[in-house]
Each structure stands twice: as C-alpha cells, then as structure tokens.
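Colleagues,

For the teaching module next term, I've prepared a clean inverse folding example: a structure given as tokens, and then the sequence designed for it. I'd like students to try predicting residues themselves before seeing the answer, so please don't circulate the second half yet.
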C-alpha cells in the first residue's frame, strides 16, 4: 500500500479538455479524501510549439489540423462549453479567437512550481485563455497573472529572458514525448502508468483507489 501518489499532469493551457479532465480529477481526489496523499506537478506540452507570435485564427487552425468544417467547429465549441459547465468551468469562445504559442506560459509554470503556486497559476491561465478571452502568449498578460497569484513579476520576467529556462522546457517536453505522451491531458501515476484524455470522475477514482490500496 502506497502512502503517496505522484501525479504528473501533462497538458497545455490552451487545451480545453485539460481543464475539464483536471476538474474531474480534483473531484475524484476530494471524494476519496486523499488530497494529503497526492503530490501533483503540471508538466509542459505545447499543442503548437511552432506557432508564430501572432498566433492563428482558431477556426482556421482546427480546419487545417483536423479537417473540421465550420458546422463541426461550432458543434465542438457547444460540446466543450456544455462539458465545461458540468464541471463548473466557463468557456467563452468568440469568433476571432486565436490559437497561440504557450512556451512562455510553461516557463512561468515551472517557476510557480518551485514556489508552491503552480496549480494556482495553471488555473488562472486556463481562466485567462478560455473565460476571460485573454491572449496567454503575451508577456503582459502572463506577468499580470503571475502577480495575481502572489509571485514576483520581475523574477518571472527574468525567467522569460533567460534562454536556459526556455531550453529546460523544450527538453522536458521532448522527454515526455519520448516516453510516449502524444496527446493531452495525460495523467501519469507514480511514473509507472498513465491515463490519456479527459476521464470521468469514476475512472480517476478507480485508478487512485487501486494505487492507494483503498479497494482491499
């Protein structure tokens, strides 16, 4: 029987299913009453690592990447919004919404992890991107969110300007991909097993209970 579970959540801040999956995971942890036994770390994954600074129209991007029609894109937004509402998260999609580069966001999430603020910042960035219609590729936006969770914007700016922190994120992403992560969200349990996609509360509860020996 394990006393602790290391949870690595590989995700991107512009991945709608990542926040939906996390919300279900959080409910599973709370319902089992095992929050004190969970050590959680968000790991970087860029859905579009080569996205230029100006970003790309989201509908155009989805059409190019997945071959989706306008009708399919509209229905997908409705479905995601409904799923978000079910877990208490608001998606405010809009016509001129863009898909953006998120490397800077991941650099700052690593900084936040070192100071025990990673999940708080991650949730702020999800809300900024999807609820508040902010551009999370812009440094001004990111530094404002850093300040919002009580971290130092000047130190955050230093991280963004230091190439070594940028290279670290790229290396981390490459390592997770080498280990077989190709889609997000992916939740890795104790670096030994994983679940991909936004799973149900029940699925997460079953996995956690088995690892903690709660089913015996």
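(Answer key — instructors only)
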């Amino acid at each position: 029987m394990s006393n602790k579970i290391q949870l690595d959540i590989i995700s991107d801040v512009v991945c709608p299913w990542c926040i939906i999956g996390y919300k279900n995971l959080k409910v599973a942890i709370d319902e089992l009453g095992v929050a004190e036994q969970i050590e959680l770390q968000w790991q970087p994954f860029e859905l579009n690592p080569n996205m230029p600074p100006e970003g790309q129209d989201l509908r155009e991007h989805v059409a190019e990447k997945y071959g989706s029609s306008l009708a399919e894109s509209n229905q997908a937004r409705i479905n995601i919004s409904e799923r978000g509402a079910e877990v208490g998260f608001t998606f405010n999609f809009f016509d001129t919404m863009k898909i953006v580069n998120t490397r800077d966001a991941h650099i700052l999430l690593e900084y936040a992890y070192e100071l025990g603020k990673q999940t708080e910042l991650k949730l702020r960035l999800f809300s900024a991107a999807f609820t508040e219609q902010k551009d999370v590729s812009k440094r001004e936006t990111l530094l404002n969110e850093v300040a919002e969770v009580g971290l130092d914007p000047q130190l955050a700016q230093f991280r963004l300007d230091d190439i070594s922190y940028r290279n670290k994120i790229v290396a981390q992403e490459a390592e997770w991909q080498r280990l077989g992560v190709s889609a997000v969200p992916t939740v890795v349990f104790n670096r030994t097993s994983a679940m991909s996609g936004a799973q149900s509360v029940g699925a997460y509860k079953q996995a956690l209970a088995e690892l903690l020996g709660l089913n015996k």
